[in-house]
TrEMBL record:
The name this protein goes by in its record: Protein p34
One GO MF term: ferrous iron transmembrane transporter activity
Species this protein is from: Paracoccus chinensis
Assigned GO CC terms: plasma membrane
Cation efflux protein transmembrane domain residues: 11-202
Localization, UniProt: Cell membrane
Family: Belongs to the cation diffusion facilitator (CDF) transporter (TC 2.A.4) family.
UniProt keyword list: Cell membrane, Membrane, Transmembrane, Transmembrane helix, Transport
Membrane topology reported for the UniProt record: Multi-pass membrane protein
Length: 295
């Protein structure tokens, strides 16, 4: 099991711990807002399981049926997570509606609030691990899980403060109103997650900053060639695909052109790893004079 899979498995354990703490906090207080927070934690556990399955599948090497690897499965998992987030938001809105129709007094016991606060601290720490390590390991599934947990942390802190305010003021209707705000926040998180994941499925190009660095590397390390054009990039899970045409003098030997390609691949991989690089070599009459000029 590699590092990504170990982190994904850790998310399941953390999710179960937080789920138990939040349901205990709800039982101690009877708060609809805290109940909505606990409902969202069920989704956290499910999404952690989905993320683990996704990273295990994406780690499989390329085969005859999938010559470009299995990296895109992580985007599918992120879409599934987004759908589950929307389902959780609808469940929370349903509870909030019942709370508005039938307000109930709160029992903001210190024990219940402390338990919920502890769950938020655990979630916050693990959220940082997921986003930080997910970006370093270039795992969309881990980053998606971490971003979802971040919205959970924000919601939990807001709910905790709101329950304290409702208890202090006696405004029992504030409890279901907070639950509704949690639901709206969760919906927004689900929309952003699905939007980004669909972009990956649609082969969106790498960010402009990274694309600029790749262009600079090609320009500075293609000595002997004339130009490069038709540069295309895309992500598939942790893998970055880079393709471009390299124009060389017509009398250059195949061996010399191959050496230039090898040099370019080494330089690009130092900046982008893992990467799948395809270079199509063309004679100088194919130059477009509008691509990347070789320094």
């Amino acid at each position: 099991m590699d590092r990504v899979q170990k982190i994904a498995a850790g998310s399941i354990a953390v999710g179960l711990l937080v789920l138990g703490l939040k349901f205990l906090a709800w039982r101690l207080t009877g708060s609809i807002a805290l109940y909505s927070d606990a409902l969202e934690s069920i989704v956290n556990v499910v999404t952690a399981v989905v993320a683990l399955l996704a990273v295990r599948t994406s780690a499989k090497p390329a085969d005859a049926s999938h010559p470009y690897g299995h990296g895109k499965v992580e985007y599918f998992s992120a879409v599934i997570v987004g759908v589950l987030i929307v389902v959780a938001a609808l469940l929370i809105l349903n509870e909030a509606w019942h709370g508005v129709r039938d307000p109930r007094p709160l029992d903001a016991s210190p024990e219940g609030l402390l338990v919920n606060g502890l769950a938020s601290i655990v979630n916050g720490a693990w959220c940082w691990v997921l986003i930080h390590r997910g970006r370093r390991l270039r795992s969309p599934a881990l980053v998606a899980d971490g971003r979802h947990l971040l919205t959970d942390v924000v919601s939990s802190v807001s709910v905790l403060l709101g329950v304290l305010l409702a208890t202090a003021t006696g405004w029992n209707s504030l409890d279901p109103a907070l639950a509704a705000l949690v639901a709206l926040n969760v919906l927004w998180s689900g929309w952003q997650l699905m939007r980004d994941s669909v972009g990956g499925l649609m082969d969106s190009a790498v960010p402009d900053a990274l694309l600029g660095r790749i262009r600079t590397l090609i320009s500075a390390n293609a000595e002997g060639a004339i130009e490069a054009h038709d540069l295309r990039t895309r992500h598939a899970g942790p893998m970055t695909f880079v393709e471009f045409h390299l124009v060389v003098p017509g009398d250059m030997t195949v061996s010399t052109a191959h050496d230039i390609c090898d040099r370019l691949e080494r330089c690009i991989r130092k900046e982008v790893e893992p990467a799948h690089i395809t270079i199509h070599v063309e004679p100088e009459e194919k130059a477009k004079h509008s691509g990347i000029i070789v320094l």
